[in-house]
Amino acid sequence: MAKSTARSGAALRRTARVTGCALLAGTLAAACGSGGGSGSGSGSGSADSLSIGLIAEPASLDFTTTDGAAVPQATLGSIYEGLVRVDQQGRIQPLLAERYERSDDGRTYTFHLRKGVKFTSGAEFTADDAVFSIDRVKKDWKLKTARQMDVVEKAEKTGDHRVKVTLNHASNGWLYAMTTRIGAMFSRTGVTDLANHPVGTGPFKLAERRRGDRIVLDRNGSYWGGKPELGKVTLKYFKDAGAMNNALLTKGIDVVGTVQAPESLSRFSDKNRFRTIEGSSTGEVVLSMNNSREPFKDKRVRQAVRHAIDHKALVETSRAGHGKLIGTMASPTDPWYEDLTGSYPYDPAKARQLLKDAGAEGRTVKFRVPNMPYAMSAAQVVKSQLDQVGLKAEIEPLEFPARWLSEVYNKADYDLSVIAHTEPRDLWTFADPGYYFRYDNPAYAKLLKDADSGRPEDEAARYREAARLLSDDAAADWLYLMPNLMVADKDVTGLPVNQVGEGLDLAGIRWAKKK
Amino acid sequence: MRVFLRRTASLLVSAVIASFVVFAFLSVLPGDPAEVVLGTNAGQAELASLRHSFGTDRPLVVQYADWAQGLLHGDFGTSYISHDPIGPRIADRFGVTCWLALGGMLVALLFALPTGVLAAAWHRRPAGAVLSALSQAGIAVPAFLAGILLVYVFAVRAGALPAGGYTPLAEDPATWARQLVLPCLSLGLVQGAVLTRYVRSAVLTVLHQDFLRTARAKGRRRRGALWRHGLPNAAVPVLTVLGLQLSTVLVGAVVVERVFVIPGLGDLLLQSVADRDLLVVQGVVIVLVVAVLVLNVVTDLLYHLVDPRLRSR
Fold first, then answer.
1. How many CB atoms lie within 10 A of CB B293?
2. Considering A161, A422, B155, B253, which has the largest number of Cβ atoms within 10 A of its Cβ?
3. Which residues of chain B register pLDDT less than 70?
């Protein structure tokens, strides 16, 4: 996401000049032919452009009707911006709103919009657009996440650059939700073809989209904030992790945006060529247990599972050691995060005893696993560790997304499953008894409700309490936190270390020295 | 001409049957495009409304009739996922795959014809046995493995060629060619190994035919007799295999496209199956089926050109 501080005019001019030279140099290099390795393929090779390899191409650029992390990853913060954003530490910061005020009862927010902001279509961003965007979530969005906007009673324009939002009841979660895709600001005149022609206020604009291959973003020349360092960013999509690694090794791309198989990192051990970035993400890898079905209806069986798993060994075996142990449904960048790995230490004897008490020794459970490499390899370890305490898990790989979504997520037809829950701040998933965890605990739901509607100062403490309750109750087991793991050309700097929001933060990335 | 008409008629019938089979198969495939689009954000109301707008809530017969009717007008429908017309997208991807398949076949021919003929001509010598063994080994290597090995050697180690990617010919012919070398090699070498076996056995058969002995008796050298009389006769069985192989290559390109990150038809097919973008899957499969059928007809017609004996029938 963009820096909210504007630069001085002189610095801006200098940047413009430097980029101008770089562009010229790039053209010259291209004119001299593709003799060098870096000029070949789809790699950028110029100081002004960069290409990032990613897995899973968004099928549509319209995140108002199509779900999937890939859509906001490519567009949020780069093409679209919200009134507020979340920073690398997980704090909410102003963005298109210069500042905002919250009323004492927490029911009204007044946003003072930044002036002189333009959409890439040329239209100016005003209070009308903000009201339009907020209203549109309730009206035209097709996704369940849009229900987070239901708390809004009305959004009204109180000045050309001032918007007042009234909520049905106080909600801390709403302001955070405004940093996610549902808070994206659209132009009243720019929503006719969101799937292919996004119009936003962000530091980049869509230059080219080649289906099945890449999305190219160009610097938005009329961006209101600090100019992004790069003139062109190519998001190159790979279906095969090996092909993505080869592309970096052969300078086809400059960054591997998500390392799929950590054991492949050894291919990039040459410090003179590559560097590895490892931070936290919002993806908790959850070993889900169907709380509404035998045997996991019994808390003792769930507790047995938590004691039976040697998380450290699991991360060593299935992730080559890359993955932080958390033991909770929170990420280190959440203000209420605390490490809860201590509450269920590895203790096979205790697990065996708990299973015996519950009369579940030797039982067979249906372990339905999405067919993604990380999930399958974690499942193998879990299976063998459960075996040792006397619980037989029968692994059944399910095609992801189609079958897993249909059978496990939507119908909850499973006993055990494992998947990374990548949505930021997703404690709420356990408060909905219809969610596939099938965890039904009114006390927990009340805690979340109180945290949301209480004073902002109390929010973190209440969520912390809720997370502890979830852990004590063994509503699920948290295997590890998916690392934000990237490998880049050693000259690329400014890559976001932590993945905190839904968008990939591109504005700060640059080349350390001119190539 | 009659042959041509008969062939075309049977092609059409096959295509209709294929369209029916494809549709039937996909309708029993578990999973639902609406569920994939809405992902973890699916509510019952949202699902129902999306199914309605896709038209997947209608009876299967109606859906099939709707789709088939569109096909007759050359309309492949609109993608559930990306909301754009499917026809142009398939055309775009088909072009890419065609280059790959043609390049692969070219490699296969360039490799198989000399190797096969030599292996046959030298079948009593050790060199012939070596060629024969090599081609046997080549058959055993799957194209994706050949691809991974080629990438490792020529792209990662030597840095001589790009490891993958695709640039349209019109945009940058040099890059286009450089990027196609390794994929065509990995597709072509394996097919070439298969083809070598057929060329070898066809030429071997011909070598022992009476007409070749007659040609030698007339005073032609062995090489001359083979060139003038042998190879045209060996061409008939090889042509059959070639037609079949072109179909195989078209379909085999799927895997190679994955390894080399080429946005071709196979890549589109796999992605659409994963997304349950059923109309796209149906469209791609129909195009592939028709392409294979057309290739078969063309091969048949070529027989008639190459082999005068067939013309009288």
1. 20
2. B253
3. 1, 310-313
pLDDT for B3 equals 73
The greatest distance separating any two alpha carbons of chain A, rounded to the nearest whole angstrom, comes to 76
A434 lies within 8 A of chain B by CB: no
* Domain end call among B33, B51, B86: B86
Q: What is the pLDDT of residues A233-269, one digit of tens each?
A: 999 999 888 899 999 999 999 999 999 889 899 999 9
pLDDT > 90? residue A230: yes
Q: Report the pLDDT value the prediction gives residue A31, as an integer from 0 to 100.
A: 29
pLDDT value of residue B125: 86
- Considering only CA atoms, which of B296, B305, B262, B300 is closest in space to residue B95? B262
Q: Domain residues for B267? A: 88-311
Beta strand pairing status for A49-55 and A255-256?
parallel
Distance from CA of A72 to the nearest CA of B (A): 14
Segments of A356-493 assigned E as strands: 364-370, 392-398, 416-421, 476-489, 492-493
Are B183 and B252 part of one and the same domain? yes
Q: In terms of residues, how long is chain B?
A: 313
Least confident of A382-386, A470-474, B101-105, B305-309: B305-309
Closest in A142, A239, A252 to B50, CB measured: A142
Whether residues B175 and A40 touch (CB distance < 8 A) is answered with yes
Cα(A143)–Cα(B35) distance, rounded to whole angstroms? 11
**B156 to chain A: which residues are within 8 Å by CB?**
246, 249-250
Judged against a pLDDT cut of 50, whether residue A25 lies above it is answered with: no
Q: Are B38 and A407 a contacting pair at CB < 8 A?
A: no
Same domain, B301 and B252: yes
Q: pLDDT tens for residues A336-371?
A: 999 999 999 999 999 999 999 999 999 999 999 999
Q: Are residues B176 and B211 in the same domain?
A: yes
- Helix, strand, or coil here: A198? coil
CB contact under 8 Å between A252 and B271, yes or no, is no
Per-residue pLDDT at A38 exceeds 70: no
Same domain for B78 and B92: no
What residues in A contact B35, CB-CB < 8 Å?
402, 405-406, 410
**Domain end marker among B86, B111, B127:** B86
Q: Are residues B181 and B36 in the same domain?
A: no
Number of domains in chain B: 2
Per mean pLDDT, which range of A17-26, A372-381, A417-426 is the poorest?
A: A17-26
Residue A371 forms contact with B (CB below 8 Å): no
Nearest to A339 by CA among A349, A350, A331: A331
B178 neighbourhood in chain A, CB within 8 Å: 34, 40
Single out the residue of A182, A143, A1, A16 nearest to residue A78, CA to CA. A1
Could you please report the per-residue DSSP string of B127-161? HHHHHHHHHHHHHHS-HHHHHHHHIIIIIIIS--S
Contact call for B261 and A240, based on CB within 8 A: yes
> Which of B35, B37, B92 is the closest to A410 by Cβ?
B35
Report how far residue B39's alpha carbon sits from residue A143's, in angstroms, rounded to the nearest whole number.
9
Q: What is the ipTM of this complex?
A: 0.83
B153 and B294 in a single domain? The answer is yes
pLDDT of amino acid A18: 31
Residues of A in contact with B39 (CB under 8 A): 67-68, 401, 405
CATH number at residue B255: 1.10.3720.10
The answer to whether residue A212 neighbours chain B at the CB level (below 8 Å) is yes
- Which spans in B55-172 are helix H? 60-72, 86-121, 126-140, 143-150
Q: Which of A40, A147, A405 sits opposite B39 (nearest CB)?
A: A405
The two three-digit tokens of residue A336, written as one number? 């209420």
Q: What is the pLDDT of residues A285-306, one digit of tens each?
A: 999 999 999 999 999 999 999 9
Co-location of B135 and B180 in the same domain? yes
A211 and B31: CB-CB below 8 Å? Answer: no
